[in-house]
Design a protein that fits this description.
This protein is 39% helix and 11% strand. By secondary structure, it is an alpha+beta fold.
Length: 601
């Protein structure tokens, strides 16, 4: 076709294709001459309707070796009208970008560099072309993704990355120049990122990827000097790696002795794990919980040194307990993440986060905070309202409800199968219609081979109370002669979560807290475990007169039984408890004072 009948942009596209398929074609010169003949002296460097068209045409001429027929200074001046100084995340200048619609367009920047590579002054350090190329490369390198090495772009990072590689090739760069050791373009994923990928790959049972990720981490372990045994000499990344390797069962890929020594050495005097910057030490809750869990996977996990470090770490975490029961470092950390990590860690240690030792003065535990304070109205979790907060909270919740795996990646969740133990200890309380406690709160041993197995119904059976349950559904209709009637009847909850399945279907695990109660309100959530510690629950509408009769004669009871009974009576009458001194006698109301005791009941 006659070049004179087509636009410079159309000719440039044909020229690029011809250079690729037949670089010796005599038509190349004709196409190049046709483009140059259409150059507008009043608009140097411009051939189309936009910067994108112009760069396409200039690039084609450069590849064909015809760019020298144009004034290259005028070309640079024109291209620089679309040039913008780029600033990095710290606000410091980081090269220059080119953009048409927006100031920073990585793909256009790479295409401009491709064009400038064909200018005669491209290799002259004193030329403006050289400086423009240098600044463009600095910009592209600054926006390169740390994990993937891609050139990040708003619309298409793959396209921007490809254009950058073409520009580097046009500039004469070889593969080893930009991908070799020591190159600024060679990116290495942070240890934390590799560890997180390992956690995910292990969960998905992608063994091939697990092997590659394990090898990457093993190759990064520091063999000597500062941080020996670590990967980056930072608790913020190292603990992720130890935890991932431990949960994958691959700690044997590294020097475990050096690693364990490093973890122990990083523990602060207060029992936490953190980092020192300048003269100040900054404890970190997430690193502390991860360090404790990581230590449980090492061969020396049972050694006195490791156990002492774990105990010290738990004391530090306990010291962070807030009035709402949560364990978190206020006000800087996300409470949902900190508290959930604590719950996951305790399950890994086979400890109950709802146990008495984790209660605060108000009787609230980390489980109370998890269930009542973690989820936001919009369904997100914590103050950050991000994916990590949701993942942490849901992992902890799965463990609390008996559906998670305490050895699961990054904080639990997953299998839904309780530990495979023949006999487990489960705590239970059974409360009648008048609020009277029929059993507990106490612990029973539940056998896997029992009548109902290790289930809520199996736990009820282990109390020795009489009950009636349907053999097929496991539905309980009677306990100790108290039978369901209409909308009133027996309900249960596990770890403060009201059940939606039958007691036969609900599995239990070591340390779970189960409450059976006779409900007279379908919306009732039942008595709380901490409430049950008082020994009596005064429910609305209950006949409490009969109960008081039990306390009229105490002479046949032991002193400890008397104390317990008086404390129950105190609670029933609504009297103040645990007072160490008397108030103004004139203002005194009803009270019970045990003579000889060290404080008022």
């Amino acid at each position: 076709a006659n070049p004179e009948l087509r636009t410079p942009v159309e000719l440039a596209k044909e020229l690029i294709v011809l250079l690729a398929v037949d670089p010796a074609s005599p038509d190349i010169a004709a196409l190049a001459e046709g483009i140059i003949a259409r150059a507008d002296s009043a608009r140097p460097g411009q051939f189309g309707d936009s910067i994108y068209d112009d760069v396409l045409v200039l690039n084609a001429l450069g590849q064909a070796g015809w760019l020298g027929d144009l004034d290259q200074n005028e070309i640079l001046d024109y291209l620089n009208t679309y040039r913008h100084v780029h600033y990095d995340s710290m606000g410091e200048p980081a090269g220059a970008s080119w953009g048409g619609f927006t100031p920073a367009e990585p793909d256009l920047t790479a295409q401009v560099l491709n064009t400038l590579a064909y200018c005669t002054d491209a290799a002259n350090p004193d030329s403006g072309v050289y400086g423009a190329i240098r600044d463009g490369l600095a910009y592209l390198n600054a926006i390169q993704d740390q994990n993937t090495a891609a050139i990040t772009a708003e619309w298409d990072s793959t396209y921007a990355t490809a254009e950058t590689l073409l520009a580097l090739k046009a500039l004469g760069w070889r593969y080893e120049d930009y991908a070799g050791e020591g190159s600024a373009w060679l990116k290495k994923s942070p240890t934390k990122t590799i560890a997180q990928c390992l956690l995910a790959a292990n969960k998905s049972e992608d063994n091939g990827r697990v092997d590659r990720l394990v090898n990457l981490l093993a190759g990064r372990q520091i063999a000597a000097g500062d941080g020996e045994g670590s990967f980056e000499n930072s608790v913020y990344s190292d603990m992720w790696a130890y935890l991932a390797l431990g949960e994958a069962g691959r700690l044997n890929a590294i020097d475990t002795g050096a690693a364990c020594s490093y973890i122990l050495a990083k523990q602060g005097a207060d029992g936490s794990w953190g980092e020192t910057f300048g003269d100040s030490y900054y404890p970190d809750v997430l690193s502390t919980t991860q360090a404790i869990r990581s230590l449980t996977y090492f061969p020396d996990a049972a050694s006195p040194a490791v156990q002492a470090a774990i105990d010290k770490g738990l004391l530090y975490l306990k010291s962070l307990q807030q009035p709402d029961g949560g364990i978190y470092a206020a006000p800087f950390d996300d409470p949902a993440i900190d508290n959930s990590e604590l719950v996951v860690t305790l399950y890994r240690l086979k400890q109950d986060p709802a146990a008495v030792e984790w209660e605060n003065e108000a009787g609230l535990t980390p489980v109370d905070y998890l269930l009542n304070n973690t989820m936001n109205e919009d369904g997100s979790f914590g103050t950050s309202r991000n994916i990590m907060g949701a993942a942490e909270a849901l992992s902890a919740l799965l463990l609390v409800t008996g559906e998670g795996n305490p050895s699961g990646g990054g904080g639990g969740g997953g299998s839904g199968t309780p530990p495979d133990e023949d006999v487990i200890n489960v705590r239970i309380a059974v409360v009648g219609a008048d609020g009277r406690i029929l059993f507990g709160p106490g612990s029973v041993r539940v056998s896997r081979d029992g009548l109902w197995g290790q289930t809520v119904l199996g736990t009820l059976d282990a109390t020795g109370l009489s009950y009636t349950a349907d053999a097929g559904t496991g539905f309980v209709s009677d306990i100790e002669g108290l039978t369901n009637s209409g909308m009133n009847g027996w309900m249960f909850k596990v770890n403060e979560v009201v059940a939606t399945t039958s007691g036969k279907e609900q599995r239990v695990r070591e340390g779970d807290r189960i409450v059976w109660w006779y409900s007279q309100d379908i919306n009732s959530t039942g008595p709380g475990w901490n409430e049950l510690q008082s020994g009596y629950i005064a429910l609305p509408g209950a006949d409490n007169a009969e109960v008081i009769d039990e306390y009229q004669s105490l002479e046949q009871l032991t002193s400890q039984e008397v104390l317990a009974k008086l404390k129950e009576l105190n609670h029933l009458l609504g009297l103040p408890q645990d007072k160490s001194e008397l108030g103004n006698v004139e203002e005194a109301g009803p009270a019970v004072h045990v003579v000889g005791g060290d404080k008022l009941l």
